[in-house]
Amino acid sequence: MTDHPISAPGAGIGRSLRVGLLVRRMMGTAGPVLAVVAGLLAIWYLAAIPMNAAQSVTDAERAGAAFDVSAAERRDMGGLSLVALAPGTALAGAYGQERPRLPAPHQVAGEMWASTFALGADCGPAERERDRLELFGRTWAVHEDCLAPVTSRRSLILHAGLTLAPTLLGFAIGSLLGVALAVGIVHSRVMDLSVMPWAIASQTIPILAIAPMIIVVMNSVGIQGLLPKAIISAYLSFFPVVVGMAKGLRAPSAADLDLMRTWGASGARILWHLRLPASAPYLFASLKIGVAAALVGAIVAELPTGAVRGLGARLLAGSYYGQTIQIWSALFAAAIAAALLVAAIGGIERGVLGRMGLRR
Amino acid sequence: QDLDELTLQLQWVTQAQFAGYYAALANGYYEDEGLDVTILPGGPDIAPPQVLAGGGADVMLNWMPSALAARERGVPVVNIAQPFTSSGLMLTCWADTGIEGPQDFAGRTIGVWFFGNEYPFLSWMSQEGIPTEEGAEGGVTVLKQGFNVDPLLQRQADCISTMTYNEYNQVLASGVAEDELTTFLYEDQGVATLEDGIYTLEENLEDPEMVDKLARFVRASMRGWEWAVENPEEAAEIIIDYDETGAQTYDHQLAMMEEIAKLVDTSQGGALDEAAYQRTVDTLLAGGSDPVITAAPEGAWTAQVTDAAGEM
Amino acid sequence: MTTISATSLDLTFQTADGPVHALRGIDLTVEAGEFVSFIGPSGCGKTTFLRCVAALETPTAGELQVQGMTPDEARRARAYGYVFQAAGLYPWRTIGRNVTLPLEIMGYPKAERRERMERVLDLVELSGFANKYPWQLSGGMQQRASIARALSFDAGILLMDEPFGALDEIVRDRLNEELLALWARTGKTCLFVTHSIPEAVYLSTKIVVMSPRPGRIADVIDSPLPRERPLDIRDTPEFLAVAHRVREGLREGMEAA
Amino acid sequence: MTTISATSLDLTFQTADGPVHALRGIDLTVEAGEFVSFIGPSGCGKTTFLRCVAALETPTAGELQVQGMTPDEARRARAYGYVFQAAGLYPWRTIGRNVTLPLEIMGYPKAERRERMERVLDLVELSGFANKYPWQLSGGMQQRASIARALSFDAGILLMDEPFGALDEIVRDRLNEELLALWARTGKTCLFVTHSIPEAVYLSTKIVVMSPRPGRIADVIDSPLPRERPLDIRDTPEFLAVAHRVREGLREGMEAA
Amino acid sequence: MILGVWAALWGANVWVAGRSFGRWLAPVLFGAALLILWEMTVRLFGVPQVILPAPTAIGAAISANVPTLWADFVQTFVKGALSGWAIGCAAALLTALVIDRSGFLRRGVLPVGNFLAALPIVGTAPIFVMWLGFGWESKAAVVVAMVFFPVLVNTVAGLADTQPMQRDLMATYGASPGQRLRYLAAPSALPFVFNGLKIATTLALIGAIVAEFFGSPTVGMGFRISTEVGRLNLPMVWAEIAVAALAGSAFYGIVALIEKRLCFWHPSQRGGRP
Ligand SMILES: Nc1ncnc2c1ncn2[C@@H]1O[C@H](COP(=O)(O)OP(=O)(O)OP(=O)(O)O)[C@@H](O)[C@H]1O
Ligand SMILES: Nc1ncnc2c1ncn2[C@@H]1O[C@H](COP(=O)(O)OP(=O)(O)OP(=O)(O)O)[C@@H](O)[C@H]1O
Ligand SMILES: Cc1ncc(C[n+]2csc(CCO)c2C)c(N)n1
Ligand SMILES: [Mg+2]
Ligand SMILES: [Mg+2]
């Protein structure tokens, strides 16, 4: 190669600069996010001690330990005073309970791992068990149902996948409806004046209250299965799209619109050649909100449909039996699914805007 | 051959409470009767009478107070069979609160299921003369209980509603000893009402073909119950197989099946005991100033279907 | 041949604070092939007049004819190319596709669109940039692209509202030279709004000096300069004389208002 | 007395595409009370130099002293009034309260704020507009308000970055006259960036011609014009001579780059 | 027939929208049209009341149950939603101020915040009921959790939305960080903050109502809805829904009105002139 000494002034600056920029960009978000997550985890672990103290003390008492304060009196004590009363017991019992008030992060992570890869603590009759596995300080039964991970009923991936179908269908319906309404609002003053207030009002109606009625009404006209759930999820996702798109379709300046008119362009042409492209950034911003809303809608819709599969059903099932760890893991699975959906939209956004030349 | 389709709406999620129906399905009893039965699980946001009225199901399971109230609301549901002859409903209290009888309820916090399941409690309280309105003198504070036993375990309530076969077992399973608890079985308090019965809409009974279908359904279901009561382990396994949430555990379902067996009477082919019906109606009508139903219902049950089932 | 003729044109905007007399009693005739500059203080109605010609505003009184038609007929006959102060290119289209956009809207066949695009980009010396995006070009190049867009369809009339207002003096000088050459080559009728006296004098065959409140014409100056104009014509006495007359017209208009 | 002295000032921006040499080897001295214009093509570092003086950028090499202090000390001693090309008024404050904003920040008592506000608004001929919001004023009026804001506190140094770039020629002429009068009255040291050769020559006692890539000083011209300058001084031979020298300096700088 | 009525009402609406009073009359007329169509559909097709009650039946339920509706409104809206909204928004604003001081925190908190904001309410509500009991406190907590992140994200974006020139001006004035916040960042963040606050209003009411499905005292809009659905008293259910929609829209409207007063200077509030 060249015989410039590596110590020559400026040598290597180009590369180290580029590497430096890259590192800085990575550090730019990864570092802070990790720090914040670490902080939250620390708070979480600390909070688990007083939150679970009552159960820790009760468990210890049932195991034979004696306390100066009776159970009836303890009922009115806060978590912190219980910790003060029996710090050792509170600490020892904080992270290993079956049904903690606040499960520790590693318990939730363990449950997520187990239910993603379909291990189950006692998931069937003893004679059907094939094997036992020691993991996270707990014994997991590997049920024959559980051997094919993703298709097992305990698999969070299966449940998330089943929630995803109505989410995506509802999101598609909601986005199309939102875009259509926004186009109407932008082109017709009547639509603008009459639809917008009612769109806002529609979002103040508690969806959980009318969801059963939607289901029953659709049922009575013979529609079942995916569609009712998708409708509920569309109900939640159309609103952000309407608002964002109405803003986006109005983004072109008066000058841009005038120019179109000097060319004698029709309303449809203006929509196609000017308003729609100009609204793309707004559209994607609202699609990201809309897809998260659609997921929430699909989860909510699992209550009144009597759904037995899906993240919402899983959340409820955890709730029926006070399985807090299971609730938390389903909760995080839902948040992860939402994050993935948003990231997917973000990816499409980067691609589309990049191709449109809107991303610099 | 062609099977007749029939849809059954349960009033709660898949569990051993409904073992008879799942057993009939799994063992092919419905098919033997020429039926293709779909079982719809229930849940906290599902009102079976509404599903029936909306045409989402042909038959439903429901507690009689809820069904009679729905009838008053204009949904003409009719009891066609009553496999459960005893009530499994009870109130479970912490023993250390000192509650020994209804006389100690004043000033206490009590968790109750609503959604049409509050009627037995309300009529009990009104018979005891204990007000249940917010802030009433000498009354109880009523909470709308969620779907689990947390309010008791977290000591947010002194007593909560439990079923002998489900929630009570959950309390015990969480490490509480039986002697830490005081329980009041509604049967013992003389305020028991009929629980899981089979209902359909009045109009179905006018159609002989439909009546025949229902009779075959009841017969197969009772056959399922007979089998489930005799084979609790296998029944629990069937439940586990049909539970798609993956949340049920075998041990819990087995325990539930054993308790359920005590409530079911298969000897009468599911026929409703008129005396039990009358006791339920009386209890509901006795609700003081605010009775659950305002008048004795007419035609709220029929022996037509169970009779037809018996003849075949 | 008379391309544009305005007779006692009035335009009053009704606003919340009362009526604004944007144009009052405008009389003006523009012959085919002329280069007419409009100059005057802010708010004197230059833009409004151009917009009336392009049928983007409707006069409240008076007569306005464009190529013997009403402005709206002329608009539908696609008689205008309009260039704004800001280039107003669509960032999601390449330069080439920006230029073909009006052709697409007007339904020209694909092959012809391509051919015309190449021709006009060549005209403004931007051939080779057809596949670049607007933001990859400097401000001056963007402005030239926007002129190319206005030239792409055969509008006989080019309306330009301060097209070079945002550019620096050096770029502006060059674009002025180019614009003049273009005008000479195509023979279009140009209406040009500017704030710069030298620019107006350098470019025009006719300079319309306007004054505000209400917007009216203070002076119409027919330029004695030859059609052939090198940049240093700006140091000649004839040039300075015209510039002086424009400045005087402006000052009087200001004082009268 | 020397107000600003720069010695072999360098400023290099590190960007993703590699380093940009915005300033290279700048040597310049400005005496108290001078009016110095900076002129040069886009990107030659005029703004960057002003920002260095105002301690908004830090030079990567060289020496910069302001009133015997570092720029940052001078900033904290509130030595600067800065006027940007866009008026940059806060839309949520009235004109009056925009003008008093720096005074509020610097802790002037209320009565004095009011009095100063009235005085400077008078100076820029905006008395009577104190209670209007910025968007209710024309661009020229907004720019004057922004100058009033920079004058409201007694900063010895006025830094102006193309303050009149967006205005029309007539308003610009008037503001030029006013600025000159103001400068004469207050005796401030002014650093003024412009793209217009006549403006630079008309206003300055010293003209700094810059050239780009890397940004450096091509020429420093001490103006032979008297301090008293009526507008038509622009038609005198001395004026034209200076303007010619500036234009030459610009052209050479362009060609060298 | 239904289509005919629809067309007639739409025509009236078109006429109204062109008038000056159209701004408020058009939405009212549109709503009236929806109600009339609803009533007609229910009557013509004989929809059972337990599936969809007619608007007249709902109106009757409202007028017959004013005290109950009022008690539920106070419990859910005033105690649950409003207090939760206020606490959540205040906390989010304060957090945003803290975060804004440090680019490190800003980059760290926002992604985590977006993640946590995606936790579905049907999962969080039971947890809060378990932690904070059956009273309004747990409902307020659910609302706090729902509104916190939208307001936080908007406020942080708003605080960062100052123009470089405006920041530079503050530097040349030698302004302290506090002054910079007070005179520059806070006012220019206001339109963003209101964006968040408006989103939060609709979330607050929904959150408070839905949380009551997971345990409540025997009063409250969510309690009433879930109980009366079980009792098949659908007119009462819809009466509560109507109150919820009315209260929610009014809440939104009030916040929008305050925004109009405080952000009069923002282009979006004065018709786009720059
Ligand atoms: N849509 C409108 N509504 C109300 N008044 C208007 C409207 N458009 C323009 N005006 C007013 O009409 C007058 C003329 O405006 P116009 O834009 O034609 O001026 P101009 O000469 O182009 O000024 P500039 O040099 O600032 O561009 C001004 O007083 C302006 O405020
Ligand atoms: N923050 C920055 N980061 C990187 N490069 C910069 C930055 N600021 C300015 N530059 C570069 O420094 C050079 C000088 O910029 P500067 O703004 O000083 O030019 P200017 O003379 O003011 O130009 P103009 O007349 O266009 O305002 C330019 O090439 C510019 O791109
Ligand atoms: C919303 C709702 N809450 C409570 C019940 C009452 N209930 C009837 S059967 C059963 C199962 C017992 O394990 C329960 C809880 C219900 N049906 N729906
Ligand atoms: Mg104009
Ligand atoms: Mg600059």
TrEMBL record, chain A:
ABC transmembrane type-1 domain boundaries: 156-349
Keywords per UniProt: Cell membrane, Membrane, Transmembrane, Transmembrane helix, Transport
Protein name, per record: NitT/TauT family transport system permease protein
This protein's record includes keyword Transmembrane: yes
Cited PROSITE patterns: ABC_TM1 (PS50928)
Protein's UniProt keywords contain Disulfide bond: no
GO terms for biological process, alphabetical: transmembrane transport
Lineage: Bacteria, Pseudomonadati, Pseudomonadota, Alphaproteobacteria, Rhodobacterales
SUPFAM superfamilies reported in the protein's UniProt record: MetI-like (SSF161098)
Signal peptide: none
GO CC list: plasma membrane
UniProt similarity note: Belongs to the binding-protein-dependent transport system permease family.
CDD domains referenced in this protein's UniProt entry, alphabetically: TM_PBP2
Principal location: membrane
One Pfam entry name: BPD_transp_1
Location(s) in or outside the cell: Cell membrane
Membrane-topology descriptor: Multi-pass membrane protein
TM ranges: 26-47, 162-186, 198-218, 230-249, 282-304, 325-348
From TrEMBL, chains C, D:
Keyword match Cell wall biogenesis/degradation: no
CDD domains for this protein: ABC_NrtD_SsuB_transporters (cd03293)
Family matches, as PROSITE patterns: ABC_TRANSPORTER_1, ABC_TRANSPORTER_2
SUPFAM superfamilies: P-loop containing nucleoside triphosphate hydrolases
ABC transporter domain residues: 6-233
One annotated GO molecular function: ATP hydrolysis activity
InterPro entries: AAA+_ATPase, ABC_transporter-like_ATP-bd, ABC_transporter-like_CS, ABC_transporter_ATP-bind, P-loop_NTPase
Family to which this protein belongs: Belongs to the ABC transporter superfamily.
Record's protein name: NitT/TauT family transport system ATP-binding protein
Species this protein is from: Hasllibacter halocynthiae
UniProtKB/TrEMBL annotation, chain E:
Organism superkingdom: Bacteria
Domain ABC transmembrane type-1 residue range list: 91-262
Transmembrane residue ranges: 20-38, 50-70, 82-100, 112-134, 140-160, 189-215, 235-258
Biological process terms in GO annotation: transmembrane transport
GO cellular component, one term: plasma membrane
Short name of one Pfam family: BPD_transp_1
Keyword Flavoprotein tagged: no
SUPFAM superfamilies in alphabetical order: MetI-like (SSF161098)
Subcellular localization, as worded in the UniProt entry: Cell membrane
Main location per the UniProt record: membrane
InterPro entries: MetI-like (IPR000515), MetI-like_sf (IPR035906)
Membrane topology, as annotated: Multi-pass membrane protein
Keywords: Cell membrane, Membrane, Transmembrane, Transmembrane helix, Transport
CDD domains membership: TM_PBP2
Protein name: NitT/TauT family transport system permease protein
